[in-house]
Amino acid sequence: MQSTTVTRLRAEYQDDAFGIGTATPRLSWRVEDAGPEWHSDRYELTLERSSGVDSVVVHSPEQLFVPWPFAPLESRERVRLRVRSGSGPDWSAPSEWLDIEAGLLEQGDWVRDLISPATIGGLSDGAPLLFGEADLAAAPVSARLYLTAHGIVEFTINGQRVGDDVFAPGWTAYEKRLRYRSYDIAEHLHAGPNRLQALLGNGWYRGQLVWPQNRSSYGDRLALLAQIEVTYADGTRAIFGTDAGWGAVSSSILFDDFYDGQRRDMRITDSPVGKTIDGVEVRGAASERIVAPSGPPVRVTQTLPAVQLITSPSGRTIVDFGQNLVGWVRLRVSGTAGGEVTVRHAEVLEHGELGVRPLRSALATSTYFLSGRPDEILQPTLTFNGFRYAEISGVPDLSLPDVDALVLGTDLERTGWFESSDARLNRLHDNVVWSTRGNFLAVPTDCPQRDERLGWTGDIQVFAPSATTLFDTAGFLSEWLEDLAAEQKPDGGVPFVIPDVLRDPDPAAAAWSDAATIVPDALHLAYADVGVLERQYASMRAWVEKVRGMVGPDLLWTTGGPFGDWLDPTAPPEDAAQAQADPDVVATAYFVRSSGILARTAAALGRQDDAADYAELERRVRAAFVAAYVDAAGIVRSDCQTVYALAITGDLFETERQREGAGRRLAELVTDAEYRVSTGFVGTPLILDALTMAGREDLAHRMLLTESRPSWLYAVSMGATTIWERWDSMLPDGSINPGTMTSFNHYAYGAVADWMHRCVAGLAPTSPGYRTIEVRPRVTGDLSSASARHLSPYGEIAVAWRLENDTTDLSLSVPYGVTADVWMPGASAPTTVAHGEHEFSSVLSAP
Hints:
It holds the Pfam family Bac_rhamnosid6H. This protein has 847 residues and is an alpha+beta fold. It contains 14 helices and 45 strands.
C-alpha cells in the first residue's frame, strides 16, 4: 500500500503557514494514488518542536479541518508537521513536512507603537517616508518583521524591499480589526547598523472612498507599526522597531490616491539624506485590534505585454493590452530631467478615444517627472487602475517593448476550469475569471476603475458559488466575513458595503444584507469548513432576527431596502433600482432563504433548539409568501423572470400545480423575450437554474447562447474581456451607456459560471467539500462537448463529455474521498462510483 501518498498538508487555509494567527490550527490534506481497496480509517500526525517529537494516531477517516491534537503553539513558535493515512493494516507514505510558525498571538507580544509624522504627511501632502535604525550586536540566525499601518506601507531594509506583497497590510474594518503581516527578514540584516525605511500611502485608510473628495474615512493621520525581532546564535533575542526615535521626510511621491492616481518626481530620492527631518508622534500600539491574516496578500500575479499602439483621432498615443485588467502600467523611458510623462487609464475606447466617462470623478492618472537617467522605469506603487487601454503622453518615441502591464489581485489559487465546443462560452468563462481576479483585491470589490471600488455585499452574495468554484477563496472570504460581523449593527443590521464606509445607521437590504447568511453557507458547501459557520453563527442569527423584528404578523418583508432586482435591463439609465420584480416579493423570498440557511447551519452545529425554531420560521414565511404572492395556477406577483427564478429555486409553492404552472409561465416569458435575459443582480444567478429545475434545460441553453442584448454573449460579441456591470454597458454603435452605473469589470453577472460548471459540464457538489458530487451534464444538442476541472479539497475532479450522432461519451476522474452519482442523458437513476478513472456512454438523441 506504500503507493498511496498524502499531499498538500495545510494549516487552516494556508500552504505556507508562516505567521499563523491561531495556537491550534486545523489541518487538512489530500490522499492520492489510493487503490480501489483503500479506505482511510485513521491518520497519524507527527510534530517536531524544540521540546522533542510527538506523534498522535487518531481513528477517524476525516482529512479536512481536523482538530490540532497537540499542546497549543506559543507566539513565534516554529514547528514541523507531517501526516500519514491508514487503511486496515496498511499505512500510506508520509506527507512532506509542513513548516508552521505562529505569529504574535497575545496582545502583550506587541511592544512597539504606531508612529505618525509630526508635521508632514498631512492630507494635502505627498507620501511620507519614515525611517529608523536597528543596530544588531551580530548577524542574526533568525529575524522577523511584524508590520501594520494606518494606510498602506512599503518597507525596506538597507535599501532592499521586504516581501513581494502589495498594499500591505490590506483593508479591514480598521476601527475594530487591523491586520498585520509577518516577514522573514534574516537575509536583509547584518551586524551593526541597519537602515529601516517605510513609505506610507493613503490607501483605503485616508484616500478617497465612496464619493469625490471624501478623504480620511478612518482618520487624517497615517501611521506605522513595525516590530523587528531578531535571534542571535547564542539564543538571545532583541527587539527593534517604531518608537519616538524615528524620523520622517518627504518622499518622491507627491500625491497618491486609489481613485485619482499617483504623481511622482523621479529626481527626488527616497532617502532621508540631505532632507529636512521631521519628528514623529507615538500614537500607541493598537494591540487590542491587531489580527493576523487568514487569506493571501495582494501581489503582482502576472505581466502582460502591450499588443498594439494606437493613434487616436485626436492624435493621442494609446496602448492596448488586449485584456481588461487591474494593475499598473510599467514604462521604460529615457528623457530629459524634469520632463513630464502622463499615463491615463480606461477600460474601453469610445469613437477611438479613451473612454473615461465611466470613471465618473476618478482621474485614474499617473504622472512622472523624469530624472534624466536613461532607461528609467516608471510604474506606480500606491494606486491601482482598472484598464485595457492607457493613453501615454510625454514619450514621443514609445515602442511596444517599452510598455507592459502588471496584473494585481489577491494571490488566490485557481481551482476551476471550463471548456466547451463553443468558443464564445469559453471567452465568457475567461471573462468571469478575469473579473474575479481583478475585483478580489484585498476585499471583494464591485469594480476596480471608478470612484467606488467597495465591498458591496449584494455583489458577493450572488457571486459566491462561482467564486468558490473558480478560486480558493476560503481564507479570503472568511476574513471578509469577520469584517462583516465586526461592522454589523447591534440590532443585526448588515451594512451594504464591507468594510462599512457608507455609515448608514440602520442598514437592512434584501439580497445585500443577506450576504451574512449566504456567503458562509457557500463557503461551507465548497470547503466543508464548519469553522466558518461557528465563527459567523452569531452574525447569521442576528441578521435573521433583525428581519424577523422588521416584518409584521403576516411575515411579509415589505421594507426590503433600496436595491431590489438591481440593474434590471428595463431600468432607465438614471435609476438602476427600477425593476420589473416587485421588491416585496424579492425581500420575502430572501427572508425564506436566509431562515432556511440558518436552520441548516444550526443543525450542522448541533444547536437543535435553534434548528427547530428557524426551520419553523422558514416554513411559516414560505406559507406567507405563497398566500400573498402566488396564485393557484403558479402565477407570481409582478410576473417576470426574476420572481419565477426566486420562487422555483426556493420552492416557494404549496402544490404541484403551482410548481408546474410557474415553470410553464417562466418558459413562456423566456420564449416571448426571444431567450434574452430580463433579470438584474437578484434574478440573474438563478434564472438558468430555474429553467433547469422546471425541466427546460433546452431554454436555459438557448438563453445562455443568445447574442442579442440583453444577454451574456452580447458583451462577448462586442469584444468584452471581462464581465460588464450592465447588460449593455456599451451600445451596438460603440458608444458607452449613459448610465452612471457603467463598469466594464463587474463580476455579478458572471455568477452564470457556476451554472456552466454544474449543468453544462455537469460537475456539482452535493455535500460540503465535494465529499459527494453529482455528475449530470444537461446535453441538449446545442453543444457537442464540454468539460470542467475542479481542485476540490480532496483533489482534482475532472469531467468531460462529447456528443457525436446519438451517443454521449463521458469521462470522469474522481479523487480519493469523493463519491460521484453519475446521471447520463436519459438515465432514470444514477450510477455511483468512488475514486478512480471512469468512462460512460449512453445512446440517446439530443432533444
